[in-house]
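Tokens in:
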């Protein structure tokens, strides 16, 4: 079960689609996602449990399902995933995630293959902060 929250709570009335990005905070017990507009405003967020045990393939499937919940119209143009550990220099592979028991998981490639969206894994706090925009997740 997930908790879906519309963060901004109001419609702008604009007929021009606004580009969105999705920030994902991958944790050991929960995966938190937020869909943000170009100004850093949260349009929607969702929290789902991290599958246990956190096998990489099942976690990616949970992320993909949660992305569909937070972005049902498929408006997002990119994904950022905050992992609990460093990514490789190219930003494609989650090198170590001690609390998940992961090592060298090609997270960006897997998410891009499933969603068709450019994906950047990064340090977890960056996604939590709404990609530096100061936004927070409603949980």
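Residues out:
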């Amino acid at each position: 079960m997930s908790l879906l929250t519309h963060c901004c709570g109001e419609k702008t009335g604009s007929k021009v689609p606004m580009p969105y990005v999705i920030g994902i905070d991958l944790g050991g017990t929960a995966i938190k996602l937020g869909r943000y507009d170009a100004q850093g405003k949260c349009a929607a967020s969702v929290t789902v449990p991290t599958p246990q045990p956190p096998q990489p393939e099942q976690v990616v499937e949970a992320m993909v399902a949660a992305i569909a919940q937070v972005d049902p119209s498929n408006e997002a143009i990119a994904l950022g995933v905050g992992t609990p550990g460093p990514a490789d220099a190219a930003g494609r592979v989650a090198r170590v995630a001690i609390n998940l028991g992961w090592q060298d998981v090609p997270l960006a490639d897997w998410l891009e293959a499933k969603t068709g969206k450019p994906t950047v894994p990064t340090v977890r706090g960056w996604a939590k902060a709404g990609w530096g925009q100061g936004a927070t997740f409603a949980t």
